[in-house]
Design brief:
The chain is mainly α. The protein is 71% helix and 2% strand. It has two domains: 36-114; 119-207, no CATH class.
């Protein structure tokens, strides 16, 4: 009877000491991903809400204090901006936003929390997003993130078309590092404002 019950329920297992059987639950069920709190809809909603709040903050008196301290701390202090309080507030708000981003990254993309998901490469990737997209620009952050996501796909397609099977995953990774490094140097020297400034120039020319 016990052997037949085990055969009829493949998701169950028996202890080696002959104890009672307990169901073996799989770690991931594709049919139940829509019920996971870290789904795509809550993530997109969170990004939209945070973007709206940050945009409202930047266009307020507090945001103008942020910009004044960023551009010239001495001049901001002369005109009466509380520099220390402004810096502490900026640090607290940015830390909160980064914390929310880490939660979304862990539970929306990784589906778990592990040290390997927050390694040094991830920190460099965020830095590349800011530099390529444009410093001190909300739109630049989105443009940089889109570029970092789309660029490896385009590079893999171009490499596969040009070199065929010789362009494997190892060559793709090294090529990506080389091209990104060169782009960062070019942006820092030629266009520190990144893709956001290029987008503004293109829009003015078209308009």
């Amino acid at each position: 009877m016990r052997e037949s019950a085990t055969r009829s329920n493949p998701d169950s297992h028996r202890h080696e000491d002959g104890g009672e059987r307990r169901p073996f639950y799989r770690h991931h069920n594709p049919q139940s991903t829509r019920h996971i709190p870290g789904g795509s809809k809550p993530a997109v909603t969170t990004v939209i809400v945070l973007t709206a709040l940050v945009w409202r903050l930047v266009n307020s008196a507090t945001g103008r204090n942020f910009i004044a301290v960023r551009d010239n701390e001495v001049a901001a202090r002369v005109i009466g901006v509380p520099v220390l309080r402004t810096k502490l507030l900026a640090f607290a708000i940015s830390s909160f936003i980064i914390g929310v981003a880490g939660v979304l990254w862990a539970f929306t993309y990784l589906r778990t929390v592990e040290p390997a998901g927050f390694n040094l490469d991830r920190s460099f990737q965020i830095l590349f997003i800011i530099i390529i997209g444009g410093l001190a620009s909300m739109r630049g952050a989105f443009l940089g993130a889109a570029f970092i996501v789309v660029f490896p796909l385009l590079l893999s397609r171009i490499g596969a078309f040009a070199f065929g099977d010789l362009f494997d995953s190892g060559v793709l990774d090294m090529s990506q590092r080389i091209v990104l490094g060169a782009l960062i140097i070019i942006f820092l020297i030629a266009e520190p404002s990144g893709l956001s400034a290029l987008f503004d120039r293109l829009k003015r020319r078209i308009g």
